[in-house]
Write a structure and sequence with these properties.
CATH superfamily: Gamma Fibrinogen, chain A, domain 1
Bound molecules: calcium ion
Pfam families: Fibrinogen_C
CATH architecture: Alpha-Beta Complex
Shape: globular
Keywords: Disulfide bond
Number of strands: 15
Number of helices: 5
Strand content: 25-35%
Protein name: Fibrinogen C-terminal domain-containing protein
Order of helices and strands: EEHHEEEHEEHEEEEEHEEE
Distance between the termini: 37 Å
Helix content: 10-25%
């Protein structure tokens, strides 16, 4: 097998040449497209970011239990090997490794949330369709839950990456948590709506509003630790598992429809 080295924001990766010929095409711009091309195994794939005019590697989740197949992972925690206590520039650029734990980066996520153009009004205007978003959670007891919303959007102009999530999907098996409608904060950037500095207090970059709604980028918990606001946090987890055990696995994934302009 001929191997071709590729460099990316995540460092050097070795990818089979035949795979590159198949996949490195600008129309492959979401995991949904990769799944539709016949590659139906979960794994790391390159996708084309239209507005950045470049490829980036992501983990495509082809196994998520859903009627839609091919979810693009933008955040994943699974073993604590990557430090998520980072400053603003890292959260904008992205960090980690898509085959393990990573944060895709606010700029990439913003572009990804605008990948699916659905209409041209004849005057050159392109509208974009918001992707769906899934939050997948599993604690150290093996208890799982997921929350899905039909609309995920990062503000395309404001520099604070204002998040707007709405449309709680009825398929969700867990109650709503208040992560919607917030600007992004990091330990060196306080954009929350409190006198305190949530991101500094909770050692994380996140869309903090009142500090204590959710924090999937918080410090990775030790085995069987109790969930607190000082580790990976999701409000009212005790309603899912009365033991309130800390989360060992979390991921955020986007689903894009196949509509093209
Ligand atoms: Ca504040």
């Amino acid at each position: 097998m001929v191997l071709l080295p590729h460099s990316s924001m995540f460092g050097n990766m070795i990818v089979p040449l035949a795979f590159c010929r198949t996949i490195l095409q600008p129309e492959i711009n979401k995991c949904t497209s990769i799944y539709a091309s016949g590659l139906t195994s979960s794994g790391v794939y390159p996708i084309w970011l239209k507005e950045r005019f470049q490829f980036t590697y992501v983990y495509c989740d082809m196994d998520l239990v859903s009627t839609q197949k091919g979810w693009t992972t933008i955040q994943r925690r699974m073993n604590g090997e990557v430090n998520f206590e980072r400053w603003w520039d890292d959260y904008v650029r992205g960090f980690g490794n898509p085959s393990s734990e990573y944060w895709l980066g606010l700029e990439n996520i913003r572009r990804l949330s605008r990948q699916t153009a659905y209409a041209n009004n004849g005057l050159g205007a392109i509208y974009t369709q918001d992707p769906e978003v899934a939050f997948n959670l599993e604690d150290w007891d093996g208890v799982k839950a997921f929350v899905q919303y039909t609309n995920f959007r990062l503000n395309s102009k404001a520099p604070k990456y204002f998040l707007n999530v709405n449309g709680l999907n009825e398929a969700s098996n867990f109650s709503i948590s208040l992560i919607y409608m917030s600007e992004f904060s990091t330990p060196d950037r306080d954009n929350d709506y409190q006198d305190r500095h949530c991101a500094s207090d909770h050692k994380s970059g996140w869309w903090f509003h009142y500090c204590d709604e959710a924090n999937l980028n918080g410090p990775y918990p030790k085995y069987k630790q109790e969930m607190t606001r000082k580790n990976i946090y999701w409000h009212r987890w005790h309603t899912v598992n009365p033991s309130n055990t800390a989360l060992r696995f979390v991921s955020m994934e986007l689903y894009h429809g196949m509509v093209e302009p």
